[in-house]
Design brief:
The complex is a heterodimer of chains A (about 110) and B (about 230).
Chain A: E1 8-11, E2 19-25, E3 33-38, E4 44-45, E5 77-78, H1 81-87
Antiparallel strand pairs in A: 1-2, 2-3, 2-5, 3-4
Chain B: H1 2-44, H2 55-67, E1 106-109, E2 112-114, E3 120-121, H3 130-136, E4 148-151, H4 154-171, E5 175-180, E6 183-189, E7 195-198, H5 199-204, E8 209-210, E9 212-218, E10 221-227
Classes of the chains: A mainly beta (about 110), B alpha+beta (about 230).
């Protein structure tokens, strides 16, 4: 099962090897919000701009900086195209970094 | 009769001398090869075949085997790891360490594992555990956008390489280090191949070899590590 982000905005400027993937959180309580997370070093941005300030979650108990629920919990996932549209982040997507639609997702 | 023998000796003399000399040379070469073959295989990483054993040699070996039955048997040559810069050196776990995860990691309980070099692998990452994340870097992901570093040697090889990289990083050997907000990012030049670059970009470039290791640590906890 592929664990890479479906849509990303850039390569990670921190570790260089990760993808700054778009993740949607808060899906179960109707308060969806977006995060940019490096899928290698776990640097987090709360806006779709990897040049902005970033933060790191706790190494063993990672939580969303916005809602403080588990970062990788069932209320969040790598954002689909529709999720990105709902977040208003479509313009931030770098299509070159998309996982292709036939590749399977988280 | 004597004359006949003399004639025969004279007739066979030169040929007989050549045969004797050739036989000596052959025997010397065989002896030299027999002596040098295991040493060359061991030191040079070659795979020279052993000469067929004679019955007496088998008996001699049988006696030796009996004498040293309590010692670990050497593996057949074909099973020995070929010395090569493409594979990390993995020390086999002693018999007392058979419970070590991947032959290296000590289970501290609570899904925390400690490497011989002092690195911790704990819960975390999208995969649920850092070891599960690391496992992604033991196989290629050809469809992954960009590059995807893949360690040689599976999980055992990856863990051994990461420990060696950590050792070099601590010593400051060919290492760049960045520290920010509790995370330490090491880029360590290992001096020889530790894996290759896969992913979409790596596959486009025919999977070039990787000789550096990128490690992201939170104190002594591994967040991620991969070849580049």
């Amino acid at each position: 099962m592929a664990m890479a982000p479906r849509h990303s905005i850039d390569y990670c400027p921190i570790c260089g090897g990760g993808l700054c993937g778009i993740r949607i959180c808060g899906m179960t309580d109707d308060k969806p919000h977006g995060l940019i997370i490096c899928d290698e070093c776990e640097a987090i941005w709360t806006e779709p701009d990897s040049s902005a300030d970033h933060q790191y979650p706790d190494a063993e108990d990672a939580c969303c900086p916005t809602c403080e629920k588990p970062l990788w919990g069932p209320q969040s996932r790598w954002a689909t195209w529709d999720d990105c549209s709902e977040l208003g982040w479509l313009d931030a997507i770098d299509p070159q970094l998309d996982i292709r639609s036939d590749e399977g997702f988280v | 009769m004597t004359e006949t023998m003399d004639k025969a000796t004279t007739r066979r003399g030169p040929t007989g001398k050549q045969t004797t000399f050739g036989g000596l040379v052959l025997a010397f070469v065989i002896a030299l090869y027999t002596y040098a073959q295991p040493i060359l295989n061991e030191r040079m990483g070659w795979n020279l075949p052993a000469l067929p054993k004679t019955g007496s040699a088998e008996v001699a070996e049988s006696k030796t085997t009996t004498k040293t039955a309590s010692e670990p048997k050497p593996r057949p040559l074909a099973d020995r790891p070929v010395a090569s810069s493409t594979k990390p050196t993995i020390k086999p776990a002693p018999a007392s360490d058979l419970k070590l995860l991947y032959g290296l990691l000590k289970d501290l309980g609570g899904e925390r594992y400690l490497s011989p070099g002092g690195l911790l692998f704990t819960r975390g990452s999208a995969e649920g555990h850092r070891l599960d994340h690391l496992e992604r870097h033991t196989v290629d992901d050809p469809q992954r956008p960009g590059k995807h570093g893949v360690f040689d040697g599976g999980m055992e090889g990856a863990l051994a390489t990461i420990d060696r990289a950590y050792e070099r990083a601590i010593a400051g050997a060919k290492t760049t280090k960045e520290v920010e907000e509790g995370r330490t990012i090491y880029t360590v030049d290992m001096g020889s191949r530790v894996g290759y670059i896969g992913g979409r970009d790596g596959n486009r470039q025919n999977k070039p070899m990787a000789r550096r290791v990128k490690m992201v640590l939170d104190k002594d906890r591994v967040i991620t590590a991969y070849p580049l």
